[in-house]
Amino acid sequence: MSVPAPAIVASVWGDAGLGPAALQRLQLPGREPGLRSSFAVSTAAQASLGVAALAATEIGRLRNGLAQSVSVDLVDAAVECTGRFTLDGIAPEVWDKLAGLYSCGPPEQNAWLRLHTNFAHHRDGLLRLLGLPEGAATTPEQVADAVLRWQGDLETQAAEHGLVAARLRSFDEWDRHPQGAAVAALPLIEIERIGDAPPLAWPELAKAAGPLEGLRVLDLTRILAGPVAGRTLAAFGADVMLVNSPGLPNIEAIADTSRGKRSALADLHHAGDRAALVAALQGAHAMLQAYRPGGLEALGFGPAQAAALRPGIVCVSLSAYGRTGPWAGRRGFDSLVQTATGFNDAEGLAFGAGRPRALPMQILDMASAFLLAFGTEAALLRQRTQGGSWHVQVSLARAALWLRSLGRVDGGFDAPLPDFAERTDTSASGFGRLAAMRPAARFSATPARYARPSVRPGTDRLAWE
User: Fold this and answer.
1) Helix (H, G, I), strand (E, B) or coil at 56
2) Residues of the chain with pLDDT under 50
3) Sequence-distant (≥ 6) Cβ neighbours of residue 151 within 8 angstroms
């Protein structure tokens, strides 16, 4: 049986040090099964979005006295987490043809390896490692044959080359793994004071404004969880500046995850762009980042460095496998973490598929996104009352352990397919006519919305004015 959403919310809320009185203003209608899964993926979506939305209203209440009630429907939250969207009526291809699970042993061994090849440099690096021709002409059949014939630990060798692959594990195998043990020792959301500073002033808030309006957030993220965290804060009213590097690729979902944001470019190896980011940081209340551990520090914008540049800043960091353990620096994505931590194995067994099965959405990304937004808000509340600079940390692998703790869903695969059309908003964007899932959080007075259209990277200057 799965854990009820109100109990989950109360636990996450209390662990962040927030008072219980506000919980009376949150309604969580609906029950499992939401989307088809043996895991409480829809409850995870509802609970993580619920705490993020409620924390936004707490910030609003401190600013203008308006204590809004919030409602998050279970199926609405699950549908938002599917990330479905179209551009000019066409659904973009979200997976490279070589991405996916490959058998790496006899069937009775249940040995599988998941490859992530959505970026060309990751695809070509794996093809080189496998001794196959680089480029889009190589077929999945060629990759399958090469993986099956591979001698040795391909998962580890891929990681040593800066590539992304994950071997299928059961829950028990993951729990016995050194990284599984390291992740289990971490809290779901870490909120740490990293410096002294006076409370930062918040701009005045009109009664009709979203609860986060006027609070400035730098979004230095690229792949799903981080950008969705920034988008969530934008939906609640924050002024979010997405900052992309002109030299790094993006995924198709940037059209969806950029809703509500400004979008600028900055090459942090260029002195002028570094100066512009410093100026923007000095006017920000929070900064999100999801680069590989140590990446931003090498460029001078790690949490401690940011706190020195902007005393009182809330820095928010996302990692794949957590900040400690042998895999702390390893690259990873939701699909790979699902495979490595046991979910693909357990879901396949529950479904009776005879092979691993993915969860119905990238719930580790999406739940982590909402938890990142909530952690940002909880730290902003601490900063406003206690002063200080703060560092918030969330990892996909720790979110996976949290999802496990929510229990299993009886009859989860019998859930009816939800109506996506009735939950879709259509708008102009810099990428074409965008049809995407609307915000699932419902506020009693100031509806969640995207005040800015989704625009291409570099549309805006890296400056708040």
Assistant:
1) helix
2) none
3) none
